[in-house]
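Archive entry. Fields below.
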Amino acid sequence: MFSRQFGKLAVLGVVALGVAITIVGTDIGVGVAKNIFTMSNTQEFGTIDPARGTDYTESYGMLNVYDPLVFPSPTGKIEPKLAESWTISADGLSYTFELRQGVKFHDATELTAEDVKFSMERILALKDGYSWLWSGIVKEVTVDGPFKVTFHLSKVYAPFLSTLPWLFIVNKDVILAHKQPGDFGEFGDYGSNWLATTTNEDAGSGPYTLMAWDRGREIVFERFPNYWGGWPHGDKHIDEAHSIFLQETATVKTMLRRGELTMVEHWRTYPDYQDMAKIPGVEVLTFLSPEEMSFKINTKRPPTDDIHIRRMLAWAFDYETVIQTLEPGSGPARGPIPASIPGHNPRVFQYHMDLDKARQELEQSKYYPDVPTITLVLPTGLENRRKMAVRFKEKLEPLGVKLDIHVEPWGRMTDLATTVETTPNIMVTSVSSNYPDADTYLNCMYHSRGSGTWMSTEWLQDPLVDQLIDQERTTLDPEERAHIMNVAQAVIVERCPDIFVYVMPLRVAIQDYLKGFTYRPVMSFYYYFYDWWFEK
Amino acid sequence: MRFSHFVLRRWLYSVLVLFGLSILIFIIARMLPGNPARLALGPFALQEQVEHLQHLMGMDKPLPLQYWTYITGIFRGDFGLSFQTRRNVALDIAHYLPATVELVLIAIVWVLVLGVPLGVLAARYKDSWPDNLVRVMAFIGVAVPPFVVGLVLQLIFSYLLGILPTTGRLSLTTPAPPLRTGLLLLDSLIEGDFSALGDALKHIILPSFAIAMTGIGQIARLTRASMSDVANQDYIEASRGFGIPNRVIAFKYMLKPASIPPLTILGLTFASELSNAFLVETVFAWPGIAKYGIRAILRKDFNAVMGVVLIIGLAFVIVNLIVDILAGYVDPRIRIKHEEGE
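PREDICTED_STRUCTURE:
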C-alpha cells in the first residue's frame, strides 16, 4: 500500500513540477508603462527613519523620501532646499531659516516651521542616527513664524550649516498620529515603532514615497507627483525605484547583462567593474570619493611612538604601485583631507617612496638598530588592502624592520581601537565625510575627545592640534577658518600619524539610458533619484 | 513503553536540547567581537549615544539577568529588539522565516521526487549505465557546493536561456498576494491568484533545486544501497520465483523496507538544506531567515542571532520528531520495539 501511495505521490510530484516548468516560458521583463529603476545594494536597509539611519543605504533611503533644509552641491557648497535663505547671528549662536512656502508632505499637508522644530527635537531625544552632529550643540529651536525657524546653539559651531543636510524634516502630525507609549511623555515613542514597522508609509515631503518594503529583498520608492520641486524631465523621470539587496556579484553581473538592473552601487571590486564595462549598453562612472584610505599609526605605542619610525614608514611606502596597480582610478592622498572636501590644504607635505630617506629616519630612531616588530591589522575581506600590506612588508624587510600582519573581523578591530594598549602599531582603514567640511575628518580623527574609536587609532592627543581644531570649530570668518584648518593639516602631517595612501574611487555601473547621475561629496547624496531620468 | 510515550520522551529531550542551545548561543553571541551598539549606531556615534542604546537593550545588566529577561520574554513572544532593525526580533522572524521554509520545503519535494526514483532506478539497473549515470549525478550533487550549483543554474537558465528569473520571490511587476502564511505559493493559491502562483513557482525552481542537489545525491545513493540490500532477501527471490513483474517487486516489495534508511536521514537532510540556504539565499537574493542570520552575526545583533538559532533549532527538532513518528509508521518493528519496552 505504501509503495502504491508513494508511487502516486512521486508521479503527482513529477507532474506538478512539469506543470510548473511548463508555466515558465516567458521572460520576466519589467514594465513598459512606467520608468522602473533597479539598483543593487550590498547591504540591507535597516531603517529609513530620519532619526535612526546612518549607513549608506539608510542614508539614501532617507534622502529620497525626506527633504533637508539645505543640500550639498557637487562641489560641496551648501545650497538651499527647504530653506530658501538663512541668516547667522553675529555671535554665531543663532541660525534663522526662511522656509520655502507651499511645500507639501506626502499626505498633502503643508510643511511648516513647527515640523522643522519637531524634527530636530525628535532626533535629539531619540539619541540615535545622526544626532551626534548636534547633541550638546543645539540648545533650542524656536518657531518665529509659520515659515521661519531659528536654531539656538549652546556654543559656536562653525560647521553647523554643513551638517544640516542630515536633518531630514518629518511631518509632525503624521508622526504623532502614529505614536505609541514610550519614554518621551506627550510624544510617546516619537513614532519610532511605527516607522520601524511600516512597509508603505512615511512622514516625508521628498521626491519619492515609500511604496513597499520586502525586508531582506528590496525596498521600493514611488515618485511623488506633487513634489514641490516639480519634475523638469516630464515622463522621463523614474517612476519606481527598486533597491535590491544583492550581495553576490556574479548574480549582479547576470542581472546587469539581462537588463534587470539599471545601476550597480559602488561597493564591488575594480575587476568587477571592468567586467561590467564590457557589457553592451553599460557604462562605468568613476569619481574621486570623499573617502581616504590610510595606514593609521599608533603614536603612543612603541616603536611607532618615535616620530622617526613613523616617518621611516611613510618614506618606505610604495604609493605609486598601489595607486597604479592595486587601486586604479584612485587619487593620491595629500594630507588627511581629500581634495574634494572644502577645507582641503593642497600645499601640505606629501611623502613618496624613498628608501634612502627611510633609512636615514630609521637611523635617527631611538630604537635603532633593534626596532621591535611593528604590528599591522587590517579588516577581513579586503584583498587589495592585504596585498598593500604584504608589499609594504617587502619594502621594510631590506631596512631590517619586521612587519607582523594580522587580518581581523571589523568588530574585533573596533574593540582593539578602544585603548592605546590594544591598538596595534598600524591599522588600515578608510574614513569618509559625513558633511562637506574638513572638520568631519579633523575632529573625529585627531582631536583628543575622539580617541578610542576606529577612526582615531593614531592616538595623536596633541595639545596644539586640539587647540587648532577647537579654534576652527569656533571661527565664523570663512577665510580665517580656512587658514586655521590649513595650519592644522600642516601640523598633523608634520607629526606623521598616518601614511596617507590614496583617495578612494567611487564607481557605479549604469545602463547607458540612465542620465543625470550627479556626484556630491557627501555619503549617499549621489544616490538622489530626483536627479535622474531615462533617455531610451 | 508505548510508542506515544517514546514520542513524548523525545519531545522532552528536545526541550532540554533547546534550553541548552539557548544558553550556549546566548554566551557565544555575546563573545563575538565588537560592540553591537556601536556597530548599529555607526562610526561617529557619541559615547553617550552608545551607552543610551546599551541601556535600552539591557546590556548594562548582569549577564544572568539578561538571560532571564530574554528567556522569559520568549514565552510572551518577545525575542528582544534587533540592533539593526530596531524591531522586535519576533517580527523580523515572522517576516523572514516563511521564505526559507517555503524554499526548504520545495527542496525537500525535489529530494523526494528525484532522489528516491533515481535511487530505485539505479538499484533496478545495478552496475549498468543508468546506475553509473545516477552515481555520477549523485556524486556531483554531493560534491559541488550548492551556491556554485546556484550560480551555474543562474547562468544557464537565467542568462543563456532566459527562461527563469535570476533572483527574488516575485517579479517586480507581479503584485504579491495578500499576506496570510508568508508562503507565497500557498498565499497565491488561497487567493486564487494563478498569475502570482506561476511567477512564484518560476522564482523558486532554481534556488530550491540548488539547495536540494546535495539531498538528491544522498537520498539516491542511500535508496540504491537499501534497495540492493533488500534485493538479496529471500522473499524477493521468492517473489521473482512466483513470476511477479520486476516493476511490481521494485515498487511494492522492495521500496517500502528500503525507504527506512532514507527516511531516517531526511531529518539530517532538512538540516543540511537549511545550512545550504545560507549561501543560496545570498546568490538568489532570497529574503529568508538564513540571510537575515548572516547579517545578524556580522553586526553582532545578538538578539537576532539568538532568535534565528533558536528557531532553526526548533525546526530541526520538530522535523526529527516527525521523522521518528514516520519511521514508526512505516516500519512497525520500531513501534513494537518501543511498545514491548525492548
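CURATOR_NOTE: Confidence is low (pLDDT under 50) at residues 1-7, 9-31 of chain A.
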